[in-house]
Design a protein that fits this description.
Largest sheet: 6 strands, mixed
Number of helices: 11
Radius of gyration: 29 Å
Structural class: alpha+beta
Helix content: 10-25%
Shape: elongated
Length: 619
Amino acid sequence: MTRQLITLITLCALSLSAAAQVKTFTVAAMNVDGMPKNVKIAGIYTVDLNPDAKEAAGATAIGQKLVGKGYDLIGVSEDFNYDSQIMEQIGSVYASGTHRGKISASISAIANYIAKNPLFDTDGLNFYWRRNAVEAKYESWTAWWDHNGYSDSGADGLIKKGFRYYMADFGDDVLVDVYILHMDAEVSGGDIAARESQLRQLADDILRINPSLRPKIVMGDTNCRYTRDQLKTLFIDVINADPRYTIKDCWVERCKQNTYPAYGSNALMVNTLGYVQGEIVDKIFYINPKYGKQLSLNSFIVDTDFNDESGEPLADHYPVVAKFTATKNPLYDPASYWSDAYDATYQAYAALYNRLMPLTATTSLPEPFRSQLPLLLTEHVATGSDIVARMENFQSELNRYMQENYRIDDNTYRLKNPSFEEGVRLQTGDVSGWTVATDATEAFISSVTEDGEGAAIRNFTPHDGNYIFNTWGGTPANGFYCHQTLALPAGWYLFTGVVATDANNAVTLRFGDYRESTGPQTDRSRGHYLSIIGYHTGGSIIVGAESNGWFEADDFHLSRLTKIPDAIESVEVDNAQPSTLNPRPSAFYSPDGRTLTAPRRGVNIIRKADGDAQKVFVR
């Protein structure tokens, strides 16, 4: 299974001064009843499946209704034989996920039926998203671990039931993880047990495999009722128990005033209570990370407009529709974010994911890295996986490629006071050029060489100057940091610094959304050199260091990386010397990108003072 995996740790993910970005969108979940009235197995034996099905005409009418509603995201179930009729109506407005096939049995189905394998190679799920408003990517499908019944008890084994994952990109840095699903049907003890297993599987996937700073939406035909199924205990309570997340059911929030129906109580039937107080099995849940984008629910309805001309429902279920607003949230609080449930390997994975994820936002990532990265970040993570080693290898190979194929030009002049030589020694808040945490009662520069209170870590050597930055005495919930905002042209950059801390704190180097962390530390006397290679799209960017506790920092450096052309022009020159090139050359490189002090025999890449470059062969 592949999955858009998501990070566990990001330190101070949002700028104190950044304006909130707001996106409003609607999502709908609908069982479209796309099963035909009957199907012939091997063209011989007819099986009655869905006698009251409205088939192609119903699907066409559903499509016409959907295109007029303008929902941004639509997750459908029982989308079997009439997906094309729906798409004929909505295709100009909506893009579609993968339709995984119709219910159409062949001769080979007989062998499957005897072996009790899925008779029909389809999950009955699909996902539509409104063009020009949202883009969905990283589709993946996961089969349920358990189901009950094959040709009986809801016939769940006849198809490949499960859930799908998508990442929905609304623009303006609003990314939402979306799960669509269809759970086991019917009400026997075996059916209820199968759904309970599926609830555990889904919660496990979200919490263990998919820890994220992105909000999530889970929607579809759950076949669950709170009064009959342990939906709250096995799904809602499990996710809310994790300190990283809160989950809400849109119906419970809007129609039941956040009070969940009691398990074991009388069923809340729509035919007696209506579509507000009555419970239906199609549901929309939304999950907010404690830190990251937040979803708020604006409205929730059951859209009873999906009827034919005689007033009869077009499908077995009306769609449930929720309208959300996505905004930013408060700063990351590491003191309450970490959990002992996550071991060192898992934390290492999370840190690596956090380091690589911003690279997906740029089209300037060179191949083969551009193709490899989405696969790496959407891979299923299981205990004992070698994902950490492969992510480390990806980062190492990318760094090597950049160093060999890009010229490194020092741009430290763009930083203000990069080695903390300006400011008043031991004067709180007097750190020229840097913004420090407003509630930090001690944030200052001190001597590199002194010991004792207010002094620096002595092994920050070699160092650029005589002073170093220190901060402590603040509030961990608000973070400790030293930041400055730069205006940089678009391009690749290398940002480095030296940091240290102790008492199980971690320090993170920040270059916009890129972060590199020391991980939790225990040794105050140890300084850490951190570096980030990242692409900036141009304009304002926050750089610096941040932590969940006190830290020290020094010697920040910024370099711009400029691509060395593979070949701008090829020229053969006998015994070429730098003086023969016009204008005068400013740098010499070997074909693999290594800097040379002068041309050597063979092929050389020579960059001239006017910025042009040429490939020169020296005999």
